[in-house]
Amino acid sequence: MSEPERSGLWSSSGWATGGPSTRRPIEYAGVGVDDPRVARCIQLMQREAELLDRREYSRWEELFAEDGVYVIPVDRDAEQFEDSLNMVFDDGQMRSQRVRRMTEGYAIAAVDAAVTARVLGRFVAESVVDDGGTTLVAVRAAQILVAFKRQRHELWAGDVDILVRLGDTPEQDRIVRKVVRLVDAGDVVPAAGFLL
Amino acid sequence: MATSGFDASTVHELPARDLVQADRVAGRIYTDPAVFEAEMRHIFERTWVWVAHESELAKAGDFKTASVGRQPVIVTRDRKGNIHTMLNRCRHRGASVCERRQGNANGFTCPYHAWSYGLDGALRGIPYPDGYEGIMSKDGMGLRRLRTESYGGMVFASFREDIEPLEEFLGDVRLWIDRFMAQGGGYPVKVLGTHRFKFRGNWKIQLENTTDGYHFPIVHRSWMASVDAETADMMSFMNDPAAVTHDLGNGHSVMRMVPERSVLEETVGEAIPPKFTEMADDLASAGLDSAQVSRLVHSIHGSGFNLNLFPNVSMSISFLRVLQPISVDETWIEHIALGSDGPPEVVGAVNRERLRAHENFQGPFGFGTPDDAEGWDRVQRGAVGGPDLPIMVNRGLGRETSSSEGWATSHVTDETGMRAAYGAWKRMMSDV
What we know:
Helix content of chain B: 25-40%
Mean pLDDT of chain A: 91
Radius of gyration of chain A: 20 Å
Shape of chain A: globular
Structural class of chain B: alpha+beta
Radius of gyration of chain B: 23 Å
Largest sheet of chain A: 6 strands, mixed
Low-confidence stretches of chain B: none
Order of helices and strands of chain A: HEHHEEHHEEEEE
Strand order of the largest sheet of chain B: 12-18-17-16-15-14-13-21-20
Oligomer: heterodimer
Mean pLDDT of chain B: 95
Largest sheet of chain B: 9 strands, antiparallel
């Protein structure tokens, strides 16, 4: 049997067929979701999710730290966002402009946006770091969102990775980084008049 | 005033070609599945269809998957540097041989019975070949190949072996491709990333949109409110008489929103916008002379025009917009971000700036795309009503003139580009 035939039969290396399956390595904080610091982070995530479903964008914006970053990458495994294309890559200024766009009434997609309901689950504490009086909590979760518009339901699924800086009280907890990693991030998704 | 040529009693019976008139088209061409099927055969499977940019196939073994109409293809670069387009379909029992969007490989192996094909589509191996002895040879059983040619880095494929050469098909478009590709800023252009999204509407609604200057300040009002004064000023073409659209022939057109930015070289030496001063200083520190710095910085905003190629790609200011018809009322779109293919330490900041500008407008969460998609969705929903009522593409007919190059020309907000595309559509659909 010739070499190409052998490669084709017995080895997939170098002969493209299915999709690659590389994922990021995962880390655990070693504490449970009932850890009070982790619980606060999850509470903030749930509050955020409800505000987005209710399209309370101004109140949603307040949940972010001024230096907070909100990202929906095209590559769901991306760790570095600056040098690659993202669907959303907002610093404070862009987030502010986005909220204005979603609320001022000129954006026809936002004016007639889908009604959404999202569920967060499968919470895992990634890290809890106390650093000089500041506590940073990283949590990973899964999110399923159903968007309904004009007789159609669209499904949006993905992971949500969040980093929260705890304040003196839960009301002062702020999102430092939120990354939504869609299962179909690199594929064809609907154009959205809402936020994930 | 032209008559419609179709009415309530005839619109459902007329052949496709009669649904397109000089100044109007019938809504049926957005909604009739039979028209859609005919378009796949008579347009997408008979003309040149864009499949790749050469930077996506930089090295030997690089490949990407794409579609020509609804048919799945693989585009590859072989060891000799040649680019091939092949049907992504095993010659044995029809399975797709590649389900990766892009990558680098020695060839493609069908997962079903492991028939394996080379980068040029030739059938290399069949497991347990004794069952074919005396009845079939591997010769002639390669992946079906499409004719493939490129111009200015734009790779096109066609199912028709006897089609005119690509350069002939492009004609006067070539000048505009050259101008568009200058935005590498002294380096070649390369693909930086791709947004993909879909809308519930016919593909021609999107085709029209890239040559529709009229919708811009209305649909994109929220984007205009978010950009700096310089960008907003640049896109204020509604009352600029120099902003025009040319019909370039064969269904292609160019919409010049910022005509003074058509030729990058003419902007070299112009003042650097204040927001890019620091970047310009850094580029100079990296050893670039003032013309090189100017070229790179002024290329960030792209070309100043939308070059619309019939039927499936628009070279739109600073990015590529590629349409893929899925069904009569569903279309997928790619928004391909472009940048400069120079040394990363030189062009890194320039490309980051381009990526952020692309994200700002394009893609499923951009400040522009969702509003466009909403508009297209509404056209599809509305056009179901009143099948005898025409879709009007007559704007500017009364002020259309011929340019010195012989191109039918009218204001950038006029529908000259749509009429150009529908002219090609009508010709190609004339034997349906």
